[in-house]
């Protein structure tokens, strides 16, 4: 009898150990306590549902049904959506080392895999430093008259255009500013080609990623290839110029030397990062400007104060005959407050992506995806 009991006990211990090993090696056996939600159809997940509804209603319905943390499967990625400040702080701040930036492959392809958003570590820091240098206070200070003249010509074109779409016009304006910050002065032909292809790329970025002839996504992929070629052309032209010491992003990238051997950036690293920065800077700033206009429209007393502040500067500059100066932008107290308050109120970036690099447990919810 004691022999039988001992064998049972040994078997039980063996099974427990085996289960533990299996759980460690193959988390699928561990029945993780995933958050509520639906993983949808095999392969497709809930991608079709996302694209057949307004994205806000797709997320709002699930948030109402499952709460602020739910699982889903979109654009080929099993994922957990987080919609509470606490959970987001957990991922982006408190436990950021458990996550890495990973975007759905269809989006990464359009921006370019070498763009800094998809990297961590030394490469990420180096590129980020170049972007920051190209936007240092000293560089921005010298850009004021240029941005001023882009704004004046945008205003003139709106006054003769009749009804305009605010967001679209803001996108055109921020595109012109971003291009001038990235490339400095650029010939009209290159600028026009960049703009045409960039807006095709932009239209397809959030569309259903079906890559067949005629689809929006395919047009975006092709526009992305064209953008790379245009950037290579601009780079080639810049290399032939006598001075490469320009203080625009392209100048900083071309002068960069990294690693022990002082390696320059490759052509793909330059074009992926230029397209990435254009993307990061242009749409966000255009959204913010659109929100500012809406808030000013809704608050006529604030609008009057901003108008009075700007009118005083306009008069001081001889009715616009003198260019706006950096010092004047520093004294726009009311205007700056409006910008800061609009950034606080408007949600410019609706969501971002992260991939767990280890098992993550959050409030007893366990995620092994
Ligand atoms: C109102 C305007 C803007 C908003 C609301 C905004 C918001 C954000 C947010 C939320 C992120 C983090 C995304 C993530 O971690 O997944 C980000 C990253 C980034 N943004 Fe902006 N942004 C704005 C303007 C700009 C501009 C003008 C530039 C111009 C260079 C820029 C360049 C970048 C870059 C390079 C990153 C990646 C940083 C990194 O990977 O460490 N952004 N932005």
From TrEMBL:
Single biological process term from Gene Ontology: sterol metabolic process
Signal peptide coordinates: none
Database matches in Pfam families: p450
InterPro entries tied to this protein: Cyt_P450, Cyt_P450_E_grp-IV, Cyt_P450_sf
Gene3D superfamilies found in the cross-reference section: Cytochrome P450 (1.10.630.10)
SUPFAM superfamilies recorded: Cytochrome P450
This protein's record includes keyword NAD: no
GO MF terms, alphabetically ordered: (+)-abscisic acid 8'-hydroxylase activity; heme binding; iron ion binding
Entry superkingdom: Eukaryota
Keyword entries, A-Z: Iron, Metal-binding
Family that this chain belongs to: Belongs to the cytochrome P450 family.
PANTHER family listed in its UniProt record: CYTOCHROME P450 26, P450, PUTATIVE-RELATED
Record-given protein name: Uncharacterized protein
Organism the protein comes from: Linum tenue
């Amino acid at each position: 009898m004691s022999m039988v009991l001992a064998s049972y006990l040994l078997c039980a211990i063996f099974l427990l150990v085996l289960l533990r090993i299996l759980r460690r090696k193959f988390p699928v056996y561990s029945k993780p306590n995933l958050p509520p939600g639906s993983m949808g159809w095999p392969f497709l997940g809930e991608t079709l549902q996302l694209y057949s509804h307004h994205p806000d209603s797709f997320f709002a319905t699930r948030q109402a049904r499952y709460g602020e943390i739910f699982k889903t499967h979109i654009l080929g990625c099993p994922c957990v959506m987080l919609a509470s400040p606490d959970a987001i702080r957990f991922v982006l701040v408190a436990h950021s080392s458990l996550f890495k930036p990973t975007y759905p492959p269809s989006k990464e392809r359009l921006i370019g895999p070498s763009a800094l958003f998809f990297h961590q570590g030394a490469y990420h820091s180096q590129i980020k430093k170049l972007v920051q240098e190209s936007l240092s206070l000293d560089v921005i200070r010298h850009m004021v008259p240029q941005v001023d003249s882009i704004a004046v010509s945008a205003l003139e074109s709106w006054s003769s255009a009749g009804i305009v779409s605010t967001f679209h016009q803001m996108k055109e304006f921020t595109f012109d500013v971003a291009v001038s910050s990235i490339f400095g002065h650029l010939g009209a032909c290159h600028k026009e080609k960049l703009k045409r292809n960039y807006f095709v790329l932009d239209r397809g970025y959030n569309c259903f990623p079906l890559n067949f002839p005629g689809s929006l996504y395919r047009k975006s992929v092709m526009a992305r290839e064209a953008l790379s070629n245009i950037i290579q052309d601009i780079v080639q032209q810049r290399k032939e110029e006598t001075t490469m010491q320009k203080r625009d992003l392209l100048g900083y990238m071309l002068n960069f030397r990294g690693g022990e051997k002082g390696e320059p950036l490759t052509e793909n690293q330059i074009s992926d990062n230029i397209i990435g920065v254009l993307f990061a800077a242009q749409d966000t700033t255009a959204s913010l400007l659109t929100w500012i206009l809406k808030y000013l429209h809704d608050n006529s007393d604030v609008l009057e104060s901003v108008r009075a502040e700007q009118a005083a500067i306009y008069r001081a500059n001889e009715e616009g005959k003198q260019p706006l100066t950096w010092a004047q932008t520093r004294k726009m107290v009311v205007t700056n407050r409006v910008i800061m308050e609009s950034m606080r109120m408007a949600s410019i970036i609706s969501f971002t992506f992260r991939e767990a690099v280890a098992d993550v447990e959050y409030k007893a919810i366990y995620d092994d995806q």
